[in-house]
Amino acid sequence: MKLTPTAVYTAPDFETPKEFHPGDGPHSTYGLTNQISDIVIKAGGEDRDKPSEHNDTVLGNLRAEVTTLQDQINIFLTERMRLENDKANGGDVERRILDEGVEEEEIE
């Protein structure tokens, strides 16, 4: 028996529901979006909560596919929030902060 997780994103301002499927793989429990930040890693930090590798069982493979699905959803929602934030702030907040050193509180 194979279990495959899926997810569907809907929102009032979103015309077509967005479907997420983990795909064929390979899948791992080491996700792209569930680890400590790069800043902490570069400072010598260690991820003490790092997940163990999954077992090659029905539940183990499901666990790895859920991690892949979680990454897809997190990446999608982060991009959506960034685009909405840019739109709400005239589309150039990030450029102004990075290029001109403008503090976010100063932007209206």
Automatic annotation (TrEMBL):
Keywords from the named record: Activator, Chromosome, Nucleus, Telomere, Transcription, Transcription regulation, tRNA processing
Any Gene Ontology biological process: tRNA processing
Localisation per UniProt entry: Chromosome, Telomere; Nucleus
Domain of life: Eukaryota
Biased composition regions of type Basic and acidic residues, renumbered to the chain: 15-24
Family the entry assigns: Belongs to the GON7 family.
Function as written in the Swiss-Prot or TrEMBL entry: Component of the EKC/KEOPS complex that is required for the formation of a threonylcarbamoyl group on adenosine at position 37 (t(6)A37) in tRNAs that read codons beginning with adenine. The complex is probably involved in the transfer of the threonylcarbamoyl moiety of threonylcarbamoyl-AMP (TC-AMP) to the N6 group of A37. GON7 likely plays a supporting role to the catalytic subunit KAE1 in the complex. The EKC/KEOPS complex also promotes both telomere uncapping and telomere elongation. The complex is required for efficient recruitment of transcriptional coactivators.
Subunit composition and interactions: Component of the EKC/KEOPS complex composed of at least BUD32, CGI121, GON7, KAE1 and PCC1; the whole complex dimerizes.
Stated name of the protein: EKC/KEOPS complex subunit GON7
Organism from which the protein derives: Candida viswanathii
Gene: GON7_0
